[in-house]
Specification:
The complex is a heterodimer. In chain A, about 35% of the residues lie in helices and about 25% in strands. Chain A has helices spanning about 50-55, 80-90, 105-115, 120-135, 150-165, 180-195, 210, 235-245; strands at about 5-20, 20-35, 40, 65-70, 70-75, 90-95, 170-175, 200-205, 215-220, 225-230. In chain A, strands 6-7-8-3-9-10 form a six-stranded mixed β-sheet, sandwiched between helices. A four-stranded antiparallel β-sheet of chain A has the order 2-1-4-5, covered by helices on one side. Chain B folds into two domains: about 5-50 and about 270-405, no CATH class; about 85-260, no CATH class. Chain B has helices spanning about 5-15, 20-55, 85-95, 130, 145-150, 160-165, 210-215, 235-250, 265-310, 310-320, 325-360, 370-395, 400-405, and strands spanning about 60-65, 70, 75, 85, 100-115, 115-125, 135-140, 155, 175-180, 180-190, 205-210, 220, 225-230, 260-265. In chain B, the strands form three sheets. In chain B, strands 5-6-11-8-10-9 form a six-stranded mixed barrel. In chain B, strands 2-3 form a two-stranded antiparallel ribbon. Chain B is elongated. The mean pLDDT of chain B is about 85. The chains are: A alpha/beta, B alpha+beta. Chains A and B meet through helix 2 and helix 3 of A and helix 1, helix 10, helix 11 and helix 13 of B.
């Protein structure tokens, strides 16, 4: 209950009504995540981690229980209020990047700004997007379309998009699921850099070695938290990249 | 709300699918162009008919002699010769508001001058006729009341008759032989062109009706009388008084039919413009159908677009788009397509009617109101046919939309 916690879930349940059967996807999760944490949410498919992620991302509301994000109870907000919360306080990174096709990297990154409450001129939009793209190592590629970028570069555009509104929390849903292992480590390197800058990151993954880049792992099974522990042997992305070796050795694995 | 950035978002989305946007707008372009061109043609025809009706003269009442029935065969108006010169004079004298009267008899005959001859129509008229028909002379002078009273052998001729008989020579002052009677040509009328029935109005010889009766046609009865009233508001009263006067003069007992027929110019004009108005509505509504088809094209593309961009919509919602933002985006896309299509269509329609009027010699008339209506209608088509797909997009659940393959 300290002031440092940015996410506070208390006894959250989520039940889906599909036909006659009620599916209890999440059954009583209480979780507190402090500012500046880097949490990996793990679990097999059907464990409820995706549902929990949707609730954390304000895309879905809990059936019961409360969710306090940045000292505001968001479990009582309506659809449009949730959209504003997502815009101001959250950044999303998806497994399949979800970039707009035939749209430049810059315009993709500008997207959350267009839905924000601040009205910015085209020049301000551009400056902001270009600065964030440069911070994830994509300076000079602002005009490239997604089809002209590699998977790792596309995910960096998506990360830049998540960061452009200076969110409280970055939520990443299997961010390395579509990437080879070297690129995955590179993306983890970016996450570790962001985390070192004080940004809170919550990441869903089912790969234990990817989870080892985080500071804390939460394991779910059957809609409840099974394990919650700090990572003792945390991996460091630059070191791992050196271990993998030059780009050719394992590029296609 | 955030109108500027929503507009920005919608225009960016359209630019991403240039080919599709152009093809979708094409439906509206063709529809609007068709409406503009068709209504232009209809209005042009209407304006032409109105101009021809106006050339009959302002506030004119036409009185025709009755028809005869002989052995069961009914002849046309004017054949019975029920109208006499005295009737016309009585109208001139007794009906208030009448400013001009022309007794009219009509015949066709061969006319000749030098070694040329021509078959043409002979109109016997009073000197008022040129004022009633608003038909000035291009050359020479009209005949006078004195010429009418004396039944002088003078005439004025139309442009067609002049060129058939005299070629390039000046006809004024020349002799025209009509049934071997030499008439002096006093003037040439300005050309009027074809009438609504396609008759060449310039193929004509006009002379005093007295001269026509005495020297060309024979007989003492009139085919019809042209009456002009000074003020348009008096036309119905004057018409009633003429009917009453003529019934009295012809000793027609109450209950019996008139032995003459009265028409006023307004009735003739109404009938003719009603026909062309029907044509305009018909052409416009056929073209309107293509505009609706264009609108359905927009709806179809927008629906495909919503389905195809489900994941995009999910992404937009994830980064903070409200349902209303998505609704506005798709609505603006549809309206932008239809109104840009509308503007291009208006230009194409104007171009098409210019081409039609210059190559097919059809008169076209594009009014500002038809342009404004076509534009408003195309924008309305965008809103109407864009609303359903836009609402469908706005109602998507972000989680479902993000998961959509």
């Amino acid at each position: 209950m300290s002031n440092g916690s940015v996410v506070r879930l208390a006894d959250v349940h989520k039940t889906y009504h599909t036909g006659d059967v009620d599916v209890h996807a999440v059954r009583g999760v209480s979780l507190e995540i402090g500012r500046g944490e880097f949490v990996a949410l793990m679990g097999a498919s059907g464990s409820g981690k995706s549902t929990l992620m949707n609730i954390l991302g304000c895309l879905d509301r809990p059936t019961s229980g409360s969710y306090v994000l940045d000292d505001a109870d968001v479990s009582v907000l309506d659809r449009d209020q949730l959209a504003d919360i997502r815009n101001h306080k959250l950044g999303f990174v998806f497994q399949s990047f979800n970039l707009l096709p035939r749209t430049s990297a810059r315009e993709n990154v500008e997207l959350p700004l267009l839905y924000g409450t601040r009205s910015l001129t085209n020049v301000q939009l551009r400056e902001k997007a270009d600065a964030v793209l440069a911070s994830v190592g994509l300076g000079g590629r602002e005009d490239h379309h997604p089809s002209q970028l590699s998977g790792g570069q596309q995910q960096r555009v998506a990360i830049a998009r998540a960061l452009v509104n200076d969110p409280e929390v970055v939520l990443a849903d299997e961010p390395t699921g579509n990437l080879d292992s070297r690129t995955s480590v590179e993306i983890m390197g970016i996450f570790q850099q962001l985390n070192n800058r004080g940004i809170t990151i919550i990441m869903v993954t089912h790969e234990p070695d990817i989870a080892s880049f985080a500071k804390r792992n939460v394991v779910m099974r059957d809609g409840v938290i099974l394990k919650d522990f700090g990572v003792t042997q945390r991996l460091d992305a630059p070191t791992e990249l050196q271990n993998i070796g030059p780009i050719d050795s394992e590029a296609s694995s | 709300m955030k109108v500027g950035s929503t507009l920005n978002i919608a225009l960016r989305a359209l630019r991403r699918n240039k080919m599709r946007s152009v093809l979708t707008a094409l439906g509206i372009i063709i529809g609007v162009a068709a409406v503009i061109a068709m209504v232009g043609i209809g209005n042009g025809a209407k304006a032409q008919v109105e101009a021809q009706i106006a050339s009959l003269g302002q506030n004119v009442i036409l009185i025709f002699s009755g028809s005869t029935t002989s052995s069961g065969i009914r002849t046309g108006w004017g054949s019975a010769g029920t109208l006499k010169i005295e009737d016309a004079e009585a109208i001139r004298r007794e009906v208030p508001g009448v400013i001009a009267v022309s007794e009219e008899i009509v015949s066709t005959t061969q006319v000749a001058a030098g070694n040329q001859n021509w078959f043409t129509r002979i109109y016997g008229e009073s000197a008022d006729y040129f004022d009633i028909r608003q038909w000035p002379l291009a050359d020479g002078l009209p005949y006078t009341d004195q010429d009418v009273r004396s039944a002088n052998k003078v005439c004025v001729i139309g442009k067609t008759t002049a060129s058939q008989i005299y070629g390039n020579e000046d006809p004024v002052g020349q002799i025209l032989r009509i049934k071997n009677v030499p008439f002096t040509v006093m003037g040439v009328l300005t050309p009027k062109g074809l009438s609504t029935q396609g008759v060449d109005q310039d193929d004509i010889v006009i002379m005093p009706y007295t001269s026509a009766m005495k020297r060309v046609v024979g007989g003492t009865t009139l085919r019809n009388v042209n009456v002009q009233v000074g003020d348009g508001s008096q036309i119905n009263a004057a018409q009633q008084q003429i009917i009453a006067l003529l019934r009295q003069r012809h000793n027609i007992r109450p209950g019996r039919d008139d032995d003459f027929t009265v028409r006023n110019q307004q009735e003739i004009a109404d009938a003719a413009t009603a026909t062309t108005a029907v044509m305009t509505v018909l052409l416009g509504s056929i073209a309107g159908v293509s505009l609706v088809v264009g609108g359905i094209g927009i709806m179809n593309i927008m629906l495909v677009s919503v389905t195809e961009r489900t994941r995009e919509i999910g992404t937009r919602m994830a980064v903070g788009a409200h349902g209303s933002d998505i609704l506005m985006q798709f609505l603006i896309e549809a309206v932008a397509l239809s109104s840009v299509g509308g503007i291009i269509g208006i230009l194409c329609g104007i171009g098409a009617s210019q081409i039609l009027s210059s190559y097919a010699h059809w008169p076209t008339l594009i009014s500002l109101s038809s342009i404004i209506i076509a534009f408003m209608f195309s924008a309305a088509v965008g809103i109407f046919f864009g609303f359903y797909p836009a609402r469908k997009a706005a109602a998507l659940d972000p989680i479902e939309a993000l998961r959509y393959e």
